[in-house]
Amino acid sequence: MSLKDLLSPFFVWQRAFEKPYTTLRPTLDRPGAPAYRGFHINITETCVGCGSCQTICQNNAIDMVAVEAYAGRAGDSGLRPRFDYGRCCWCGLCVDICTAASLRMSNEYAWISDDPDSFHFTAGVDDKPWQDNELGYRRAEGYHLNPPKRIEMPMLSAQESLKSFAEVTLGYNEEQAKKEADRCVECGICVATCPAHMDVPDYIHSIRDGDYEKGLQLMYRTNPFPATCGRICTRRCESVCPVGILGEPVAIRWLKRFIVDQVDKKDYQRILEKPIASTGFKVAIIGAGPGGLSAAYYLRQQGHAVTVYEAQATGGGMLRYGVPSYRLPDAELDKDIDHITSIGVEIKYNSRIGKDVMFESLLENYDAVFMSTGLSVPSSMRINGENHARVLSGLQILADVASDRDPGIGKKVAVIGGGNVAMDAARVSRRLGAEVTILYRRRISDMPADEEEIHECQQEGCTIVPQAIPVEIIDADNKQKVCIKWGEAKMVDDPKGGRARPVLQEDKMHTETYDCIISAIGQSSNLDYLSKELQEQLAFEWGKLTPAEYQHTSMKKVFVGGDFANRTADAISAIEDGHHAARGINRFLNPDFYTALEKQEN
Amino acid sequence: MNTVDEILDYAIEQEQLAADFYEDVAQRVETAGMKKILLDFAEEEKRHKKILLAVKTGEHELTPEQEILDLKISDYLVEVKTSENISYQDALIIAMQRERAAYNLYNDMAQKVPDGKLKHILLGLAKEEAKHKLFFEAEYDERVLTDN
Amino acid sequence: MTQLTGHSSALDFAQPEPVDMASGKYVKLWQGPQHPGITGNMSLELTLDGDTIIDCKTHVGYLHRGFEKLMERRSFIQNFTVVCRIAVPEPTFNEYLYSHAVEQLSGIKIPERAIWLRTMNLELMRLASFLMWIGGMSGAFGQYTVPNWTTAYRDFVLDLFEEMTGARIYHMYIVPGGVRAGLPDGFEKRARDIMDGAEKLLDQVERVMFNNAVFKARSKGLGIITPDMIDPYGIVGPNARACGVERDIRKDEPYLAYDQLNFETITGKDSDAYERAYLRLQETRQCISLIRQCLDKAPKDGPFQADMPNVLHWKIPAGETYVKAECTRGEYGYYMVTDGSEFVRRVHVRGPSYTHAIAVMERLAVGNNIADIAGLMVSLHTYPPEIER
């Protein structure tokens, strides 16, 4: 033992004169670090209530509870997370998984209350002092617990696709589909948003499980057109998919298509159908489009005898005559329609109501009638010179091509309009070898056409001229040509908050000559098969009508659906109208059945 | 028509005539829906009339300086004749074109009078009509030009 | 001073004669489960002859939370919030090993930046853990000044954790796939300042604790581990290195960025309580050097997370793996079995304390007196929670 060992301990005194480490709480505040995982904050306006936080919480500290302010908001479950601080471990996984990045943590860590219930609170709804705290844990940029990017759909190159009417999208393979299916957070907001309320999370789950037959069964519960919708659905579901808030939404449509692609048509009957017991009731359906055939399918499943009257030579309606085959090949549409007919739905083709068969006779001979004749008349621009022989309608061109007729468009065409029909008419014209210019009165971002279609349209070499307002059609020197005069528009914001309006600038006019002008600015219905009295009785307004509950009209036997009976005018809405009408007709034909069923359910 | 009151009386009468016009067409159209639309238009005209009456009594000021957006939709549309089976689109075109005609009338009159109270009133009335035109044009833009 | 009742040497594993309690010559004394130190909730059942220990049994079970079982009922992402609790003073090693095992089984390769951030995180953890341990060691021998210094200084390291990870104790920073965030602005400067301060502190600690006559007198020769005990007992870490056995996973089987860091394995000669303590002091200094190297070499930008599947339904292919890392106490290992489902089939956590606090402690305690037991326990650096996962 040395003297040094005895003395050195006394060096502790040296530190007596140093500044102490201690923080003088509570006199001095010591805020948490800027990224401290403190008490929860939820920006309830941004939150859509997907519930991923609840799913990921390993302590069950989060419950999704209904918050009245958000009830019924579109693309929103109306639920918000409630935290139980008796369970929370402040791991922050809820913040990491939050699809909207609305959930975060403040750097506040001290909270004293004599009310134990106050530690059980709905962040952002129950007032807490840290709600506006700028600091605290946020998910770091570049950190993801769910891939933000979707699996890209394999597609034909623009060059390749222009050569024929072959389908442009090639479909996922199993590995791609499973990867994409993996991105679903199973919130179900899509189910609420889908007009047909398809059970999206469950059929996506069936992809993860590799059980495609179950997936098909789930889809047919609400939609007898999965092959079609898997290709051309307007996919409202994807627009509300919370994964799409910060990344790209789950490719619900392509996943639906994937399931259908995996199952052979010959197995449909075994997978989907049970023996049908006949009820003896007869139902007539006008129009073999998605609305009519959907109603036919579900009515037939209930045991009613169903006859569909169709003016054209084949079924599918707008799906066949309005959607080009590079988006929806005939074989795929036939896969859907053939299954509907395979269960005993009878379709009478080339039977136009009002000409071949009278509407009144249907009322007489059938127990119920479902009308779904859609919008088949192209709208007119109402500008001078519109009746020029070289002004063609987009719908007519699409129908010609679908029926293998040459629409005779020439080599240089202008398409007017920004909807899907305009895009399709343009892309069809490209495939027929024409140079295409699209004139649209607003901005490209305002176009009602599907974003992908606009993109593919540009890829295929169509020139889109936005903010171009047609003002006059003028005769050209040559009868085979036509001139259009259009003016540039400037966009003016709507002070009331609506979409910006285009204002014509009369000093910026252009005149251009084309081989033809394709007008595609919307459609309206053709009700010639109904007498004026019947139209009045059914309460049609400008060719459209709003049905009552279960798609019922003011006439006892008559139910309606499809484009002319809804505001959205897309396939999936028509399909739901048909399904809903089938429920209504079933109820109407057999009221006792429903009373019994309701009793059973209660 | 030389005095302010005369001009205002004329304008008020015009609004009443417009309201009568829509009510008259409403009696003849075939569908209940169209009838309702036209009666709504008539109501709109009566509202305009009320504003002008308020101007006459001094309760309301015309604002000729105000910039009113001109969408110039009606300027290039083919004229529509009224009939029993007009559509909503037709009805809107008729309404837009009537308002445009009124606007042009007051504007032309204003060019012909010297600066002063009268000119002020005429320009104010023109602006008032421009507002009405905007109302129908916005409706047309919203409801009819959906795909376009 | 060693007087092994019933055993001829530390390597005699024969069943000893039972102590004749009925004779009235002996007393049983329970030390713990609460200890005035940092050893946590563990109990020693001591049989005493006078104040000399003739038998020692370790009792655990005061801290059992069933982590391994809990993990079988939670998804792969949820588990990373659980594992940190297995060793309270150094949760990061659990986070790293759990994540590493999951990454191995699912075939995820983490980016360069994550590797460096993980390494730095682990070394910061080692520093914080050693600072607290020094306090415990000193306190166990009745010196209460050094614990005040080091545990307080540890809080500065915890401040760094708070900035880097968002929490002071349960960092939950190392996550399967990488880490949760990069370094915040100004972190490097503050980290360097704190390292400088720590270096100064360690000099002072060395002076007043290791050059202290009382500490030397009591700790030298206490609980000697001989090299021939290392393999039969499975002794690892500083306890093994202190008797000259060069055994350090960071060197032997380099993981993360350790093969790119400049350091040498530190060894001692006679592994008694003093030697072990002094070795840990040196390793604490080594930590500071490693942290500085990490600050120098870690990439400043780039991804810190690998591409991940949706963790909400993350399934990992069937397989098994054993991963290990050098924690402050030696080899820390995770054995994991997956069966292709969304849940782990089995996880086994292998903490060095199992050996050190049970087999080694029971043997080394014999022959010492009651007053030295606390110091002996701390000198083995044991954490009861990793014994009962």
Outline the structure in words.
The complex is a heterotrimer of chains A (602), B (148) and C (389). Chain A has 602 residues and is of the alpha/beta class. The longest helix of chain A is centred in the last third of the chain and has 19 residues, at 571-589. In chain A, strand 13, helix 20 and strand 14 (463-465) form a beta-alpha-beta unit. Chain A contains 23 helices and 20 strands. In chain A, the strands form six sheets. A five-stranded parallel sheet of chain A has the order 8-7-6-9-20, sandwiched between helices. In chain A, strands 11-18-12-13-14 form a five-stranded parallel sheet. Chain A folds into four domains: 40-122, 2-Layer Sandwich (Alpha-Beta Plaits); 159-270, Alpha-helical ferredoxin (Fumarate Reductase Iron-sulfur Protein, Chain B, domain 2, Orthogonal Bundle), CATH 1.10.1060.10; 278-375 and 526-601, FAD/NAD(P)-binding domain (3-Layer(bba) Sandwich), CATH 3.50.50.60; 378-523, FAD/NAD(P)-binding domain (3-Layer(bba) Sandwich). Chain B is mainly alpha-helical and 148 residues long. Chain B has one domain (4-143): Ferritin (Up-down Bundle). Chain B is built from four helices and no strands. Chain B has helices at 4-28, 32-56, 88-112, 117-143. The longest helix of chain B is centred in the last third of the chain and has 27 residues, at 117-143. The model of chain B has no long low-confidence stretch (mean pLDDT 82). In chain C, the strands form three sheets. Chain C has a three-stranded antiparallel sheet. Chain C has a three-stranded antiparallel sheet with strand order 6-7-8. A two-stranded antiparallel ribbon of chain C has the order 4-5. In chain C, helix 4 (112-140) runs antiparallel to helix 11, helix 5 runs antiparallel to helix 6 (187-210) and helix 12 packs antiparallel against helix 13. Chain C is globular, with a radius of gyration of 21 Å. Chains in contact: A-B, A-C. The interface between A and C is large, with 45 and 46 residues.
